[in-house]
Amino acid sequence: MAVDKKEEEKDPMDNVRFKIGKRFGSYTIEKSLDEGGFGQVYLVRDNSGKRFALKAESNDMEGGSAIKLEALILRKLNDGESVIHVPKLLLSGKRKKYCYMVMTLLGKNLKCLKNKRPKERFTRGTWSRIGIQCLYGLKYMHDCGFVHRDIKPQNFMMGNEDDKERARIVHILDFGLARSFAKFSESSKTWSARRARGTAEFRGTLRYTSPNVHFRKEQGRVDDIWSLLFVLIELNGGLPWQNVQKREEVEAMKMIMTDQDVMLNMPPCMCDIIPHFRTLDCYMRPDYLLVFKALWQVMLNEGQTTSSRFDWETSDPDPSISPADWENPDGRFFKLDKIGINGPPPMDKCAAESTQQGDALKSDKGRSVNQKK
User: Where do the segments described as Disordered lie (predicted)?
Assistant: First the structure.
């Protein structure tokens, strides 16, 4: 059967190129904010005139839209309330040609802000405070049972500058590659780890993935924090593999370079972070407080406070805005262990019997080989 040439050449993005004035429930499109391989982002207003962001993805893109997963995770992260460091989800839906969701209108992402700075870097006083907020958002996500698996500067955004409550808050977003690592039992009111796979596909952005990802290991909480550290190294002036294009070369550098070389231009108070990461597997809880204290010390060493201006700000913060939770110097949030997981789940009876049978077969095979020898 002949294929219509126009249909064959149709751009999947046409599915999400909406006209100004199109309505989604009580939200009306005002203008396009961004377009990328993922889809489109629009500025919308509700009936009261408040502004929000609408994200839409075509169902015809390779792999389909990830918005359904993103919306599911955002609902769990918000749990019906507006949570700091996480955009609020207001509406989501699926249509024949696209999926969409309406959420909090945010500002610029960290990559955009970095690229506009001299030498495309932040001062230590800025990236240390940004890092604490990113760590806060990640720990909150982990405490809800999810790992992000695509930590990069583009996936952290400041609040919209017109939103006084959120303008100086870093928000974590884009959960299209996220995965649950733990499940909650309503009957026992306890969390248990999800059993790791023997091998896992590569997930993430090459520049920022932890070494574990290159070994095709299951990603855990530590891999998100490891990626965050790589982001901070980039914000400080650049990663050792910053300009390397070939995947094999990037992987080799991550495997071969010493921790000291990776952290060469970073403050000495952060030298214990990677050695700690190397002691953890995908089940084990990272020491969030260790990372927090290191970043807080960088801020103090630079003579900054939580209310000091960020590099891109031209005026002092509004003193009427109450301090956010990340600004607490004792790091109490980072001490909390909400889910209490630090190892694999208990093996059920069937799995245990299967493992024992496998061990017995290996033992028999070994005796058979020895007998032949």
Answer: 308-373
